[in-house]
Design a protein that fits this description.
Layout (H helix, E strand, L loop, with lengths): L7 H9 L5 H4 L3 H18 L10 H12 L2 H9 L7 H21 L6 H9 L8 E2 L4 E2 L12 E3 L11 E3 L3 E2 L5 E2 L3 E6 L4 E5 L4 E4 L7 E4 L3 E4 L2 E4 L14 E6 L2 E6 L4 E4 L7 E4 L3 E4 L2 E4 L16 E5 L2 E5 L4 E3 L4 E3 L20 H6 L1 E6 L2 E8 L4 E2 L11 E2 L6 E10 L13 E9 L1
Antiparallel strand pairs: 1-2, 3-4, 5-6, 7-8, 9-10, 11-12, 13-14, 15-16, 17-18, 19-20, 21-22, 23-24, 25-26, 27-28
Keywords: Calcium, Disulfide bond, EGF-like domain, Endoplasmic reticulum, Glycoprotein, Isomerase, Redox-active center, Repeat, Signal
Subcellular location: Endoplasmic reticulum
Family: Belongs to the CRELD family.
């Protein structure tokens, strides 16, 4: 009796299943066969004494011997071989179901090793351990102990590879019988050789300690009969740059960056600084930030300016409601609109008699009531040719003019008689 055949609908579902992950798709035929056999063996273990829990021992032994080779048990094992999403596994079971059934019912006693019978002899996708290639030839050193037991045979157990030895660490040679230079033979006879690592101070050795070195490793030096570490950091010329400090390690050294507060250092952290970078000073033996804002001499020079300390520096910021000028932080006038210069502001060509006798005013928010001082104290452009600076303006008493704009306002006078006329002046915004 065979397991019930899978329906066409069920087979269609298998075809519609998503492809297996990359790792599963890349399995070789031998790996696929071995995986199937491993699951089959696990299924046999899981069903070995199913539904038998004690009682009539004689009856159980008789019944169990029948169950051991029963088709019911085989069906249980086959149903548990593959995940529903594993297309390749399900496909292989479909293709090899009759062979597995024949082995179970007829050949199991004669060929108890399912892997050897199924994967090696029947499907011929694998080889026995210690053999390789299309004809399952013996590996280097023989199939019983390939590579002298100190390496891996290329293609071992598969129909691939060339049978050459890939030696384990510490071994070398075509049969992996010899030790590499930094290992020594701690046990050797006609069939075995055990290679053990030398002490880290040895390049070559005859034993396990630093006294057994035949040659010292780089970074070590022989002192009497022992290889000792060389302290490169103690050299007359340090091996690291000025912004680094040296740390000695066995057989070598490392260069580590100094702390960011240091100008040169002898070790890790601000306590090891030779000198401090700008903005830091020695405090309790280490470089600490200088609070420039708390010094007696003001760090921020402009009027109304606020100082904020930062690591290694400081920033100067005008407070809210103030605007920055070259010399000060000035408060923005409430409603301070652009206004024209007063009618008494004169051009550069105006005679001194008129210029010195007149007073000027600055219009703010449309008015002319903000006196800005007499023209004698006003600022003047350096030359009449500089049309960009033609005109005069005056800082108001108790305030600061901080932006200027071109405009045409006012009247001009000459020869003692101040005549009417337009002159080019400026418009200003100011605060007090």
């Amino acid at each position: 009796m065979r397991p019930p055949p899978r329906t066409a609908f069920g087979f269609l579902l298998l075809l519609l299943l998503p492809p297996a992950p990359d790792a599963a798709r890349k399995l070789t035929p031998c790996q696929q066969c071995r995986a199937l056999v491993d699951k089959f063996n696990q299924g046999m273990a899981n069903t070995a004494k199913k539904n038998f829990g004690g009682g009539n021992t004689a009856w159980e032994e008789k019944t169990l011997s029948k169950y051991e080779f029963s088709e019911i048990r085989l069906l249980e094992i086959l149903e548990g071989l593959c995940e529903s999403s594993d297309f390749e596994c399900n496909q292989m079971v479909e293709q090899q179901e009759e062979r597995l059934e024949a082995w179970w019912l007829q050949l199991k006693k004669k060929y108890p090793d399912l892997f050897e019978w199924f994967c090696v002899q029947t499907l011929k996708v694998c080889c026995s351990p210690g053999t390789y290639g299309p004809d399952c030839s013996a590996c280097q050193g023989g199939s019983k102990r390939p590579c002298s037991g100190n390496g891996h045979c290329n293609g071992d157990g598969s129909r691939q590879g060339d049978g050459s030895c890939q030696c384990h660490i510490g071994y070398q040679g075509p049969l992996c019988k010899d030790c590499v230079s930094s290992y020594f033979s701690s046990l050797r006879n006609e069939t075995h050789n055990i290679c053990t690592a030398c002490d880290e101070s040895c390049k070559t050795c005859s034993g396990p300690t630093n006294r057994d070195c035949l040659e010292c490793e780089e970074g070590w030096a022989r002192v009497e009969d022992t290889c000792l570490d060389v302290d490169e950091c103690a050299a007359e010329t340090p091996p690291c740059s000025e912004t680094q400090y040296c740390e000695n390690v066995n057989g070598s050294y490392t260069c580590e960056e100094c702390d960011s507060t240091c100008v040169g250092c002898t070790g890790k952290g601000p306590a090891k600084c030779k000198q401090c970078v700008s903005g830091y000073s020695k405090e309790d033996g280490q470089c600490a930030d200088v609070d420039e804002c708390s010094l007696a001499e003001k760090a921020c020079k402009r009027k109304n300016e606020n100082c904020y300390n930062t690591p290694g520096s400081f920033v100067c910021v005008c407070p809210e409601g103030f605007e920055e000028t070259e010399d000060a932080c000035v408060q923005t006038a409430q409603g301070g609109e652009w206004g024209g210069l007063g009618s008494q502001v004169l051009g550069l060509g105006t005679p001194a008699a008129c210029r010195n006798k007149q007073e000027s005013s600055l219009g703010v928010t449309g008015s002319w009531e903000a006196a800005v001082g007499n023209l004698g104290s006003s600022r003047r452009a350096p030359a009449p040719q500089d049309t960009d600076k033609l005109g005069q303006w005056t800082a108001p008493s108790g305030g600061v003019v901080f932006r200027l704009d071109s405009g045409v306002q006012g009247e001009a006078r000459s020869a003692g008689r101040c005549r009417e006329g337009e002159v080019e002046g400026r418009r200003a915004r100011w605060s007090h």
